[in-house]
Amino acid sequence: MLRREHFVEVKGAGGYAKETYKFNVTGQGKVRGTELLEICRYVGPAPVPLDVYKKMVELQTIKNIVVVEAVVKKAFSHLIISDGLLKMLGPAISSGKAIFIYGPPGNGKTTIAENNREDPSGNGFYPLFDNRGRADNSCI
Hints:
The protein is α+β, with helices and mostly antiparallel strands and 140 residues long. It is 36% helix and 11% strand. The chain has 5 helices and 4 strands, in the order ββαβααααβ. The chain has a two-stranded antiparallel ribbon with strand order 1-2. Strand 1 (8-13) and strand 2 form a beta hairpin.
C-alpha cells in the first residue's frame, strides 16, 4: 500500500526478491506521516482486545486455506525449484503443521523457508493483543 500510494519508493535491492528491496520515504510520505503524528504520537502495533485478536488469528490459520498447485507454483516462481519438490511442498504447506527442511549447506533451505512464511495472498494481518481491556481503537 505504501508504494501504491507513493509514500515510499524503491531505492535499490540486495537481490531479485522483493524482500531485499530498500525503500526511501517520499516527500508525499513525509507529509502524510507528519499529518498522522499530529493526530496521534503513538508509534507501534495497533493493540486490540483479546476476542478480536483470537478471531483474526483463527480466520488466518493455514488450516482454513486450501493450497492448490497453481498457488504454490506462483509463490515459488522466482526460484528455480524442481516440479518434484513443488509437489512435496504443496501438501506440506496445506497440512498447517511445521515443515522440516533438511539437506546440505547451500541448497536453498533458508530461501524456501523464508519464501513460505508469508501469506501467498498477501492479505495477512497479525494483530497485537492489548491486555489492558481497551475495547476501542483510539490513540494510546
